[in-house]
Amino acid sequence: MTPIDDPYAARHGSAADLAAGLQASRRDTLATFAAFESRPEGLQVPQHPALNPPLWELGHIGWFQAWWTGRNAQRQFGPQADPNVPRRAGTRADEDALYDSSHVPHATRWQLPLPDAAQTRADLAARLEECLALLRTDTAGDDTGLYFHRLALAHEDMHHEAALYMAQSLGLAIDDPRWQAAPAAGPRQAIGLDAGPWALGWSGPGFAFDNELGAHTVPLPATQIDSRVLTWGEYLPFVEAGGYTQPAWWADEGAAWLAAERPAAPRYLRKAGAAWMHWRHGRWQPLDGHLPACHLTAHEALAWCRWAGRRLPTEAEWERAALQQPAAFTWGAVWEWTASPFQPYPGFAPHPYRDYSAPWFGSRPVLRGASFLTQPRMRHPRYRNFFPAHRNDVPAGFRSCAV
User: Are 27 and 400 in contact (CB under 8 A)?
Assistant: First the structure.
């Protein structure tokens, strides 16, 4: 694995490794943006809570990079920087009013007077070049000095994944072979783990998100956990048994979601005669039952577990299996819903990007792992993802444990 794809290099590598990753990330950002431009509708997308205008997304990525690096007088202080330190002027006078996601309401982004695509690309290139110059000159090569550059890389990689699943929701074909789901390799088997303590979280050097810090020991019971996530062939018997018409299998929140949305099947699936079809790349195709079950809500994952007499793993059980049994425990096919609510670890202290973790504690479940749309350098076994339980545009599925 090259440094630009290596999750260890992204969190622990040198300034040169980081510069290569930033340039690679930008190439992918621009390639996916160009795919949106090629649509008959161009850059116009419907106003929806799960979408963003692609032109706004592109400008926001550059703004975020500059806000935390080139415009940040305390960038050398890393996680100890004052988030409210006055910023130097940006490339354009109105960029904070256009792209600051903490203060620009989501619903207004469709009406903003954004620069056109050519100017946005030019701004983006200038901000990347400034960031690379800082890496070459005034940035100390330690973890503190590289912190905001690593944050900017992770932020752009997250937005790239979001752009890919937004493309799926809009029926846009992304042909790059890196971003295609692969069939499961081998049977789903049980991995047995003995009862014992587990050090959950991170306390070492390198980059970590604030919600990953605060390593603490948790007692875990003996566990039988699946070696891989469920495939469609393993999930669809629940659907065909009438699972979506029987509220008894659904927890209270799931039953409310089922009553409100009235789905007959998972998102992007439908039945044609006796065959299941899969909406992919803007057209209906025969479903490969060996593909991982994907674009499922947490409610659907929990309902299947009730029906099957199984349960979701906690995030601590997931992390222990991933790190203790790396040869047997296969992950990275889809984001995986867990039974754990997204909560701070003991001693939590927010990093300067205040809106990343703290606003969402207690309101979302934790997802672990990565998906086929995730940049390889983001695939870290201690990374904690978190989405509302009803989201099914995200490429998420699940594995189960014995009750």
Answer: no
Alpha-carbon gap, residue 78 to 20, rounded angstroms: 20
Indicate whether 217 belongs to any domain.
yes
Q: Which two tokens stand for residue 355?
A: 């809106």
CA distance 369 to 353: 23
- Segment holding 126, helix H or strand E: helix 117-136
Q: Which amino acid would we find at residue 81?
A: A
**Domain-ending residue, one of 177, 210, 237:** 177
- Start-to-end Cα distance in the chain: 38
The answer to whether position 336 is within a domain reads yes
Same domain, 173 and 194: no
What are 269-302's pLDDT values in tens digits?
999 999 999 999 889 999 999 999 999 999 999 9
CA distance 16 to 19: 5
- The answer to whether residues 203 and 146 belong to one domain is no
Q: What is the mean pLDDT of the chain?
A: 96
Structure tokens at 320: 């222990």
Alpha-carbon distance of 355 to 360, in angstroms, equals 8
Q: Which amino acid is at 29?
A: T
Average pLDDT over residues 31-37: 97
pLDDT at 1 over 80: no
pLDDT tens column, 190-244: 999 999 999 999 988 999 999 999 999 999 999 999 999 999 999 999 999 999 9
217 plus 163 within the same structural domain: no
Residue matched to tokens 């703004």: 63
| Domain containing residue 109 | 7-177
Smallest Cα–Cα separation from 209: which of 160, 147, 260, 252? 147
Spatial separation of the C-alpha atoms in residues 338 and 386, rounded to whole Å = 10
127 neighbors 60 (Cβ within 8 angstroms): no
CA atoms within 13 A on the CB side of 278: 18
Instruction: Give the integer Cα–Cα distance in Å for 311 and 339.
Output: 8
